[in-house]
Design a protein that fits this description.
It is built from 14 helices and 16 strands. By secondary structure, the protein is an alpha+beta fold. The strands form three sheets. Strands 6-10-11-16-15-14-13-12 form an eight-stranded mixed β-sheet. Strands 1-2-3-5-4 form a five-stranded mixed β-barrel. The chain has a three-stranded antiparallel β-sheet with strand order 7-9-8, with no helix packed on it. Bound molecules: 4-amino-1,4-dioxobutan-2-aminium adenosine-5'-monophosphate and magnesium ion (MG). 4-amino-1,4-dioxobutan-2-aminium adenosine-5'-monophosphate binds next to strand 11, strand 15, strand 16 and helix 14.
């Protein structure tokens, strides 16, 4: 039986495949936390219902034993789920011996080594369920807005975000890279389909060991033809608002399990403030940061300070040409800066979106490819997009794991993906 919403079964007798996540018992009554796949439910076993022998057998089963339980779904207001299961019968499927993750506290390295089973725990289960909702809401949002979902390649010959953080691999006789971003391909797709988005894994050989960096992360990359920078910001704002609203609505139980501060999440909705890069630098300087100059990229403390000056996600716009990738369009009204924005999440979760208006002029793009010393041959197809009906276009990339970290209120991206790839971790 596939029961995705047990609440709909209220008052009914059901049989459930489940694992014992936790238990406590006395002589006459036993309480279990059962994980039934889609979620957790409290189950109660009474000696008077099961009889002495079965009751004792059940209450001594070890953690993570799998079983099928039959019983009645009843209301229980003290449970976050609002329901519980009264066990009438059970069948043991497999007894688990010496499950390493006990209900006591464990160190994070130990948990990371045991990620293949750590994902069973209540907190991890809640975070990954929210991740699923964000993915689902992403598809819903872009479908509603008339976007087509298309998939860029993972093995590529181009490097949109700079050549220092690439994973190289042999492609028969050629050199290939694992994709850092599907953007360039999505630009081609936008010229064919108008509004498109991709969702896929991206790889960055970044030697960063922070709570915001993964080596392999998933990115949502929308790209829009006939769309300028300002119009792109509007879509980004609507999209992030949609994610918050949907998660608050559909993952209420998970957010409660995680103890998420719902008020600040709720307050994050609405119009997002915008600040120009140069004004952000000034704001930092005025507040005692003497480790940053115009032309520097922001570090975590800078981003956090800027974010804390607002209670909403904030767009930092108009960055200097020199610290942004080759494809960004210079602002015709403000030479030296590009039409781009990073969206910084509130509460110190850092940059969740990077986006820009793209160069639509052939000669300007060629000039930049040369200036950045990129392999011209690998970008010929990309240049050609500016030859055949070039139009104003913009797009952005939202990092899924950082967004999940922020929305769930979880400090570290390693818990927002089932199997994180980190600087020193490839297993499990
Ligand atoms: O700002 P980035 O590098 O932008 C791009 O890749 C553009 N080509 C996107 C586009 O315009 N289509 O990355 C986009 C987002 C960041 O804002 C961040 O959320 C996430 O991807 N990100 C990472 N997430 C986890 N670990 C990392 N190492 C990340 N690097 C970037
Ligand atoms: Mg960025």
């Amino acid at each position: 039986m596939n029961i995705n919403n047990l609440k709909e079964q209220l008052g009914k007798k059901i049989t459930l495949g489940a694992w014992i996540a936790n238990k406590r018992s006395s002589g006459k009554i036993a309480f279990f936390q059962l994980r039934y796949g889609a979620g957790f439910i409290q189950a109660i076993a009474l000696k008077e219902n099961l009889g002495e022998e079965k009751y004792q057998e059940l209450r001594h089963l070890p953690q993570e034993t799998s079983l099928k339980v039959t019983g009645l779904i009843k209301e229980n207001d003290r449970e976050i789920s609002g329901i519980e299961l009264e066990i009438e019968d059970f069948e043991i499927i497999s007894i688990a011996h010496d499950y390493p993750i006990t209900p006591k506290e464990h160190g994070v390295e130990f948990l990371a080594d045991n990620r293949h089973i750590w994902i069973r725990s209540k907190k991890q289960h809640a975070i990954l369920t929210v991740r699923n909702q964000i993915i689902k809401s992403t598809y819903d949002f872009f479908e509603k807005e008339g976007f087509l979902k298309l998939d860029p390649p993972i093995l590529t010959s181009s490097a949109p975000e700079g050549t220092t953080e690439l994973f190289n691999t042999k492609y028969f006789e050629e050199e290939a890279y694992l994709s850092q971003s599907g953007q360039l391909y999505m630009e081609a797709c936008a010229m064919a389909f108008g509004k498109v988005f991709s969702f896929g894994p991206t790889f960055r050989a970044e030697k960063s060991k922070t709570r915001r960096h993964l080596i392999e992360f998933w990115m949502i990359e929308p790209e829009m033809a006939f769309c300028n920078h300002d119009e792109s910001l509007k879509i980004q704002e609507a999209y992030v608002n949609y994610l918050i609203t949907n998660v608050m609505e559909k993952c209420e139980e998970q957010l409660r399990v995680l103890g998420r501060d719902l008020e600040s999440l709720n307050n994050a909705r609405g119009e997002f403030p915008r600040i120009k890069y140069k004004d952000a630098i000034q704001l930092l300087k005025d507040n005692g940061f003497d480790d940053i100059e115009y032309g520097d990229d922001f570090g975590s403390p800078h981003e956090t300070f800027i974010a804390n000056s607002y209670n909403k996600p904030v767009f930092i716009t108009h960055w200097p040409v020199d610290i942004k990738p080759f494809y960004m369009k210079e602002d015709p009204n403000e030479p030296g800066v590009v039409l781009c924005a990073d969206l910084i999440a509130p509460e110190g979760y850092g940059e969740i979106i990077g986006g820009s208006q793209r160069i639509d002029d052939y000669d300007k793009l060629l000039e930049n490819i040369k200036k950045h010393e990129l392999n011209e041959e690998a970008y010929n197809w990309y240049l050609e997009l500016r030859k055949y009906g070039s139009v104003e276009h913009s797009g952005f990339g939202l990092g899924l794991e950082r967004t999940v970290a922020w929305i769930t209120g979880n400090g570290h991206v390693r818990e927002t993906i089932p199997f994180p790839r980190l600087l020193n971790r490839l297993t499990p």
